[in-house]
Amino acid sequence: MSGYQLNELLAQPHNLVRHPDMPKAAFADMWYTLKQGEPWSGIVKNRRKNGDHYWVRANAVPMIREGRVTGYMSIRTRATDDEIAAVEPLYQALNEGRCSKRIHKGLVVRQGLLGQTARYACSLASA
What we know:
Blueprint (H helix, E strand, L loop, with lengths): L5 H4 L14 H12 L4 E8 L5 E13 L2 E11 L2 H15 L5 E4 L2 E4 L1 H15 L1
Antiparallel strand pairs: 1-2, 2-3, 4-5
């Protein structure tokens, strides 16, 4: 999918395939969430070796040993057209600083009190 051979990716940082259109906030949120010992899922735009791009649904989990995060594992699948259509304008707005939303655990959510209330209600519903 990326156009790279396995030997070109071994021992390389993952940001080798990071597309510049991805909001920095998405990766900051991913690393913060994972370091807290929680899973992270989101739609990610990656860059192919030839400069083109592809979209994936990234599901990342921390590997925990003796109560400490010791590594990370990520499984990526092809993102659907609907997922891409939903996040692409939001990511562009985030990059341009004209979005009233933020990324929280891989999801684009409202900021402020209304967003906190909605997240709290969802957490109660899933409990």
